[in-house]
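Figure 2 data, in text form.
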Amino acid sequence: MAYRILFLHGFTSSGDCEIARTLTAELERAAEVAAPDLPLHPSEAMAMLQDLCDDGRFDLIVGSSCGAFYGQQLVRLTGVPAILVSPFLKMTEFLEPRIGVHQYKSPRADGRQQFVIDTLLIGEFAAMEQHQFDCYDEFNRLRVRGMFGSQDNIAHFRDLFCRYYHTAIDYDGPHTMTAANVRRDLVPQILTMLAEVRPMRERHFRHFKGGLYRLWHFATDSETLQRRVVYQALYGRRGFWVRPELMFFERITRDGKTFPRFAEIPPLITNMPTDFSIRQERAADREAVVRLIELAFRDMSDSDHSEHLLVDRLRPTDAFIPGLSLVAESGGRIIGHLLMTKAAIVSAGDGRIFPTLALAPVAVLPASQRQGVGSALIREAHRRAAALGYASAVVLGHKDYYPRFGYRHADTYGITFPFDVPHEFCMAAELRPGGLKGVRGTVRYAPPFME
């Protein structure tokens, strides 16, 4: 399964609702659908969903009704795009006429089918409702799409949605989609969204005073249990900062204008700091590249320290692509190197051969590591490889690093590696949408990799 989708159900429903079951069945070959039961109380639901998104590496959020109310808020906090189906952006209007005891319309995992709507619950939703757009950022205007049913008689928030987001899509159906709506209307939109809008794995921001920053991860204060953001300056000494999550993402007002304290920006703007540049390797660089690779892997316990020899063995082969042997240069000094070489994925059934690229190695001088050099090399290599007509790449590497560049566990594509290593280190990526569609088999590397 190539993608992961987080589905958020409506207020009176559960993760076992008809929409979730239909999505799971219809997207069986394309995506894994996670559909948790949402807590009744909104603050508990948001806390659970943020924790899920921290760990789940989702590609898309799909929310229905109240789930769309939560999904809208998650986009800014998680960097994951969303489709909001019949978004109930003012939940109090749904709850106030329905005070009393109710039954969930589909089975809940904990077996509790009864819930109560009271004034306390309505007050909790009113508080969240009031602040639901406090973290809105124009960056996400095209990263959220709404779907509105022609027969929806209870939610009328299209105009409110369109104040913040660009794309509103009509479908012929009720507030809660039928199975037919899911198949005919929602699934095609999901597949389009997955192809066109990517989650922000590596996130960069511009402070309203001009400084550029990279978000590294989220943490929880051990005393207050509040969520916090750990982020790094992309200037000066590149120091790290810690700030309460909502303070980081909130909108502020200065001189009568309201805007994000930290506005998100595309990674391509900042993934290549101004103190280095990337270019194709030249013959005169080879000695420096060999030394660089030796130094980069010298202290790595999981390395056999022969990466520099591998590069030398690959150079005279047909697998070597000069335009994909890249160096990062700063002040006339080479500080990073990356190589992508020709490989293939061979089908076990009929022997079909699917061309691909092997990413290896990626090396950065120890003194220049954790400064965006490796990330910039990988992104530039992907861009150049796609321009050369290559549709995919494979890598044997760190399971927490390479997914930010679009790599996923290879077995989700039906791809295996010819090495006896844990599967989570074997990854593949599409360099163009659909680049691995229908591709199955075992990776065949150039001979030097097997020596």
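Caption note: Residues 179-196 form the longest helix (18 residues).
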